[in-house]
Amino acid sequence: MIEQAFFLVLAGVTLGAALGVVTARSVFVSALWLVLSFLGIAGLYVLLDTGFLAVIQVLIYVGAISVLILFAIMLTRNIMVGERATNNQWAMGLALALALFGTLAAVGHQADWRLNDAAVVPAAGGLVLTGDSLAERATVPGALVIQDEAGAPTVAASGNIATLGRAFMSDYLLAFEVAAVILLVALLGAIVIARE
Amino acid sequence: MNPQDGLSPPAATALRAALDQALARVLPEQLAGPTADVLWWALLGTLILAVIQVSMLYATWLERKAVGRIQNRLGANRVGKFGLLQPIADMVKMLTKEDITPSGAHRWVYNLAPILVVPPAILVFAVIPVGAGLVATDLSVGFLFFIAVSSTVVIPIVMAGWGSRNKYALIGAMRAVAQIVSYEIPQVLSVIGVLLMAGTLSTQGIISSQGVAVPPYGSFPGVWFVLVQPVAFVIFMLATVAEIERSPFDMPEAESEIIAGYHTEYSGIKFGMFYLSLYFLTIAAACLGTILFLGGWQAPLAALSFIPGWVWFSGKTLLLVLFFMWLRGTLPRLRVDQMMGFCWKILVPLALANLMVAGLVGKLAKQADASPLFTLAGFTLANLVLVAVAVWLLVAWRSRVGGPAVGLRPPTVAEGAA
Q: Whole-structure pTM over 0.90, yes or no?
């Protein structure tokens, strides 16, 4: 019951702030609404018992990306006067946004969202949520229930970070390395552009 | 204070039990539990708020006294004995000053900024343990929580700079963003070496791993991390001083250059909120340094552990706060170009090298199953080598370019000086 209420409030904040992003007249104020939206998503992560993701959401999206967006706006725009927040590419932007929304909605519709059945989310090596141990999970704040090698549910004392790290370094090593290389390329690209 | 963890002080456990009993008598069964929880958390929140606000008030008093002594002055001594009532008088002054909103300001952004700048600075105290079991919530990601929440302080600062419609405020905000975002990198990098050895992100876990191993944590026994990784400690302290915008890294509010930076247009209690937030963050940063490097609430010797943990914790925190004040009273302010150069050209490479050294030595010691004393000796040696190589590189660089390294001297015209 209480979780439901929290979910409704957080979803309302996230969506309301997202609406604020596209309706605000000033780009700067749009960016501030975006921060609130990111915070709402972090709250949803907390509600899902994934404390690590919530903290990373705040650290990366609120503390870094939003701040850089604000910084970029202050550097590039003539910010002391109000400015039109749209340009002549809005039709293309609308089409792209609709396509993205359609894709996400389709994926969300097909995904398996059961949480209270046994062995949901059979993802990376051992990262398995089990319904039986949800009560057990409550004894360790922020911990995720994982299965040990034998398949019995155990509570990871150090939370889900160890499991996540192991998954990154084993099953998802390629994706992890590719992401790192992409970031490195972006970094080098930024330096090249800045030097010109 | 988690009465369920078996570590909380007896008084806290007894108080919680009394609360549970009293509520069970008045309320039906399914309501009593949640109500007790809510009341308990409200009580804890009030306690934390009260303690950090009083600490903040007297940190301002201590700063005036300490910096005064350093500069051969007396410091506040008129209101009350030793000027002890001065912070109260200052508070009254701030509350009664005229509240001004510039006519060109963006009303919402301008007024929201001082309100939003305080909550992150208070929230970080949720994961700071002042004793065994004396922590509001021992998150498994405690350290990351601290870093994430304290990094959001930048947003209200940008809001203040932009909302004021004042060029000095805007310049101050830009400096603050550049500084805080940059120095976060060496700060976190220097701590990763510590986290590698502690094997946990929980603040209680980090403290336990520096002392007598307390289940469920405990890996590297007995030694504070300041002895194991002194270079990391120095990098952490320097980056932290920049993070909390204290002198000599207070370019965002350099009064000789840009009036007062992002809070130029704020008066009365709105200015007071920025002041409050910076002092909260200073105390929080000292607490974090105590947790990560000085063994938290643990006594330095087992023989001294009859003194309660919170006394040790407050003492060590006070020591670090005094260190921040000592820096402020002694060092001149850096220039903006020095600020960025120092971070990216010295602190970040040094922190990366330190991380590699810490990982390598830690791994070797673990493989060889070395005794703690042997491990400590290995780390001391590695840190000495690291410092020697860093100094050698800096000197070689200096002699090649024929002067201080780039970023540590004024830029030449060719490099884009105005």
A: no
